[in-house]
Amino acid sequence: MRKHLVTLLGSVFYTGFFPFAPATFLCMVWLAAYLFIPGGGFLSSPISVAVMLPLALYLSHEMEKIYGKDASQIVIDEFVGMQVTMLAIEPSILKGVMGFMLFRIFDIAKPFPVGKSQKIRGGLGVVLDDVLAGIYAYGVLFILVNVFHLN
User: Fold this and answer.
1) Which among 26, 100, 116, 119 would be 20 to 30 A from 151, CA to CA?
2) Residue 96 is part of which domain span?
3) Is 37 helix (H, G, I), strand (E, B) or coil?
4) In degrees, to the nearest 5, what angle opens at C-alpha 63 toward C-alphas 45 and 96?
5) In angstroms, rounded to a whole number, what is the distance separating the alpha carbons of residues 20 and 112?
6) If we measure between CA atoms, which residue out of 15, 146, 23 comes closest to residue 82?
7) Maximum CA pair distance of the chain?
8) In Å, how far are 22, 30, 98 from 142, measured between CA atoms?
9) Distance of alpha carbon 126 from alpha carbon 12, whole angstroms
């Protein structure tokens, strides 16, 4: 029962088992919820991030025991990365798509210290690279939103 609950939550309701690019798929699902579900902006609230971060650390650590180091089925780390990217940014399709693209670019490119953080063992290594990629994406998005007054 515990293994099933860890897998359910760590794979974010099995989106981590999507057959092609599960991390990107999860980010698209997250973005759709953020943009189109009433109150979806709560996903990027500081309270939501504060709740999800320790949960992601724990679940990622536990899922590695089941599926292996930074397994593709673990996507709760991308969930938190998207939260950080869109942290307290007012939902809009333009900002959401830009945030999604920026996060995926930084998560895939892994500029310093994002790539180095993956060498850390356990859930911290799994989640930290996505948090750092989210911070980079948030910084660029914040500048673009404020310089160009995007809505």
Assistant:
1) 26
2) 2-148
3) coil
4) 30
5) 27
6) 23
7) 50
8) 27, 19, 11
9) 15
CA distance 74 to 77: 7
The token pair that represents 1 in the structure block: 């029962």
- Count other Cβ atoms within 10 Å, centred on residue 114: 21
**Quick count: other Cβ atoms within 10 Å of Cβ 52?**
18
Sequence-ordered list of residues with C-beta below 8 angstroms from that of 135, at least 6 positions apart, any chain: 84
CB 95 within 8 A of CB 150: yes
Tell me the two tokens of residue 68: 């292996």
pTM, to two decimals: 0.94
Q: Which two tokens stand for residue 45?
A: 């609230």
pLDDT of 84-120, one tens digit each?
Answer: 999 988 899 999 999 999 999 999 999 888 888 878 8
Number of domain units in the chain: 1
H-assigned helices in the chain: 2-10, 22-36, 46-67, 76-85, 93-109, 114-117, 122-148
Structure tokens belonging to residue 88:
């307290």
